[in-house]
Amino acid sequence: MTIQSEPQTIKKHKHPSRKHTKNKDKHTVTIPANEKSPLIPKKKASHNEFNGASMSGAVMNLSTTIIGAGIMALPATMKVLGLGLGIIVIAVVAVLSEATVRILLKYSKEGGVESYGGLMGDVFGDIGKKMLEGCVVVNNLGVLVIYMIILGDVVAGSSSEGLHHPGLLEGWFGQHWWTGRVFVLLVTTLGVFVPLSSLKRMDSLSVTSSLAVALAVVFLIVLAGIAIFKIAAGSLPMPRFLPDVTDINSVWNLFTAIPVLVTAYICHFNVHPIRNELEDPSLIEPIVQISLVLCTTVYIMTSFFGFILFGDSTMGDILSNFDSDLGVPFSYLLNDIVRVSYALHLMLVFPLVFYALRLNTDGLFFSSSDLPLEYDNKRFIGVSAGLLSLIYLGANFIPSAWDAFQFTGATAAVCIGFIFPASIAIRDVYGISTKSDKILAALMIGLAVFANVVAIYSDAYALFKRNQAPIA
């Protein structure tokens, strides 16, 4: 997201930044770039192409950023926390996420800053800006690896704890080299490269974002319908409303759900780009609130019906549960509908998350480049291809989506969503923090650090015990 801090003059045949002033000399264009300038500006120079994004389109883009792969792991958090405590924690994380986004918007407005990175640069200098860019790169790279893992699980199948879960292609055509995970993910990676290589404005994705949200709702409707049918038939046991705590290790295990819940609400890196493209930027706060209410409703309903349906058999990626007879009419057809709809959903969400990943990668490694990324086609394609290659490799070598959620949620995601915004409020370089702002910020930092340190310890301990079990 970084562009040069000094004004520069380029020839007319090169594309100017959107924040520019034309000189009377038609041969040059001046770009007054600075740390507060967004990489992708609000409007194009041509009045016929883009006059500002609508509120509905912005709601869809932000909601799609939030409802990604996180929804698939939320039912598994109910297995850890229990249904009652799990729903309460989902609602609490949503409220805290809204508070942190409000902090970012409040301080960026006060400082005249048009990006999260610019705000971090104002408050903590270049080191703070680089730290944010690094965290967004780690978080988004991890999230997109999760997307690819889930796509691989759905389309090509997966194996867990000695059990093989066939994917769609294997179920339809049997086991072949072209239904295997490596080939399927390669085709998926190449298939998404074309739209990604041409995406230079977020609002252009508002239609696909609406479709992505609709597909997530289709998944929810089918899931709820199956659960309600089985409840009415009396074939489902009562779910646990509280966690199953037997010893100190089971207490520590509760905290492993926190990184997954944090990751599910991370949208902070796309809030400023969405606001910058709005026809009326003052609408961003109600857009954030509407999006969070919509996503929280979908999250709670998915967690509720998913855990009721599968209970303690709920897997880290609930889509993997949809590969056998569910005990309802048209079971296998419903399985395919669920998996196909969510695979398409993830492919439509992918560009939104990749958008921020590419911009922050460019800002982190190519901040000295003369042209913004949107006007340097070679760099644009090169960064895109390099990132997609890393995502492809990660999806083939990381064992499960749950493992990836634990890593990104306990590290980069908690910094982006909670620690950095709270630190901005405590540092208060603009002198606008109230006492309650600082108290809330301190509490958020304390809770975030404690919960994630415990989660990392619990995951490391469980991994150590798992690796030691065969030796014993």
Produce a short descriptive summary.
Keywords: Amino-acid transport, Membrane, Transmembrane, Transmembrane helix, Transport. It comes from Ambrosia artemisiifolia. By secondary structure, the chain is mainly α.
Write the layout of secondary structure elements.
Blueprint: E1 8-11, E2 21-22, E3 28-31, H1 55-66, H2 70-81, H3 83-111, H4 116-156, E4 157-160, E5 163-166, H5 168-173, H6 181-198, H7 206-232, H8 248-254, H9 257-264, H10 268-277, H11 284-310, H12 331-365, H13 377-397, H14 401-427, H15 435-468
Antiparallel strand pairs: 1-3, 2-3, 4-5
Helix pairs in contact: 1-7, 1-10, 1-11, 2-3, 2-9, 2-11, 3-4, 3-11, 3-14, 4-6, 4-12, 4-13, 4-14, 6-13, 7-11, 7-12, 8-15, 9-14, 12-13, 14-15
Describe this structure in words.
Helix content is 67%, strand content 4%. The protein is built from 15 helices and 5 strands. It has a single domain, classed as Amino acid/polyamine transporter I (Up-down Bundle). β4 and β5 form a beta hairpin. The strands form 2 sheets. It has a 3-stranded antiparallel beta sheet, with no helix packed on it. It has a two-stranded antiparallel ribbon with strand order 4-5. It is mostly helical and 472 residues long. The protein is globular and about 60 Å long. α2 packs antiparallel against α9 and α7 runs parallel beside α11.
